[in-house]
Amino acid sequence: MTDLLATSSEEQLQTFSHQDTEVIYDNGSSFFDALIDDIQQAQHQILFETFIFVNDHLGRRLVNALQQAALRGVTVKILVDGCGSPYWSAQFARPLEKAGAQTRVYHPFPWQIWNWSRCVVKIPWVVKWIYLLLNANSRNHRKTCIIDDNIAFVGSINAVRNHLMMTDNGLGWRDTAVRITHCNLAPLTEAFDYAWEHKTLKDRLHETLCHTQTDPLFRLNHSRHRRRVLYKQLLSKMTGANKRLWITNAYFIPEHRMLKALCQAAQRGVDVRILIPRKCHILLPLPWASAMFYQHLLKAGVKIYEYLPSILHAKSVIIDNWVLVGSSNLNHRSLLHDLEVDVRLRNQTAKDIVKQLFLADLTESQELSLNSWKTHRPWYQRLLGRLILYVKYCL
Question: Of 3.30.870.10, 3.40.440.10, 3.40.50.2300, 3.40.430.10, which CATH number belongs to 2-187?
Fold first, then answer.
């Protein structure tokens, strides 16, 4: 079903010859096929950034496509995160740079000396060590690729084989991404440059003083002012929901104002549903922390589902006919610390596909009730979940 959805949406969208087109992907296999095909056809510039870039067969396939683009004269810039891609310099940087590509690492940890020469921060090493230590919690969680200022890929899919259909018993991780064309990609390019050049205090002040759109196409949070404006607008959308409020999120640890907005929406009759993972791919069991909010939400009438087939890593928000797809989790880390990007879909076909995917995911999920949640959660999970919440500002 997943590949058919991506293909059929592209065929339908091609009829809108002079409008922005949005093609939805719900798995890594179809996503990377499309991405690599576009990289191979790039003529001028490729700006690629990701949180995780792993040295597996998918990573090597991507690197080969980027190398070939650089060798034929395309400007190629690759930005990875120091936490998500700690061994970037040792694995991929040199062969890419030899081909003519440029690579940088966003906020490597201070002890990652091998990444220092490619760090986005260009300051004396003693000051750099202190700076990186103080900013160790600030990560670049975006996953974007901008090609020739005409095509953009945005979503939650990292450069790692876990997203492919060949993993997890043929299912792969459940993810969502979008390919966008025929629209103004300047905000995405500016955000990439903002991280690549590591803007100064003067630039950050200018960004704060500039007007931030309340409902932009690309929701970018590279300043505190942007974070405040966008979060306030998201809460406003939730508060004003009339028919539906459907959320898919990998790390659901909501801030208290969002928790209140979700409960109030359900209490006034809005169809509020939250889809979160049953399985967790990281050492810290964040779903146990998410479960600490279940009782409050369920009592208010919110429906909660846990996805069963594989790892759920997707992030989408559907409020009536307003649809977001991107990299942001509904937790304090995305709200306060990490660089994120989400896309507000404008094409009705793409919106409908995201809604269909949400409903299809529910058929492969378990709906929770107050009794089932209390019965199926061992005491140690509830205890550890409560302890995790004490460090929620780092999660």
Answer: 3.30.870.10
